[in-house]
């Protein structure tokens, strides 16, 4: 049997010491990629209202960042 320092389980990074820094770093990287992917088709479109952009941000973008946050340890 081989031991791992960290691994991804159900979409969240689990470390052997319970540190959340790798998970938060990974979530921020995912958030950045989602924001970049939506840059041209959504954020730069002036024909889309700010309200619609905020709804998409709240549903699609924040969910990527906060997925699994309810299980994070508070320190």
Average pLDDT, all residues: 89
Number of domains: 1
What's the shape? elongated
Summarize the amount of helix as a percent range: 40-55%
SSE sequence, one letter per element = EEHHH
| Structural class by SSE content | mainly alpha
Distinct helical segment count? 3
Q: Main sheet: which strands, in order across?
A: 1-2
Distance between the termini: 31 Å
Strand content: 5-15%
Our Rg estimate from Cα atoms comes to 16 Å
Note the topology:
Blueprint: E1 6-9, E2 12-15, H1 21-37, H2 39-43, H3 50-66
Antiparallel strand pairs: 1-2
Helix pairs in contact: 1-3
Key terms for this structure?
3 helices, elongated, mainly alpha, two-stranded antiparallel sheet
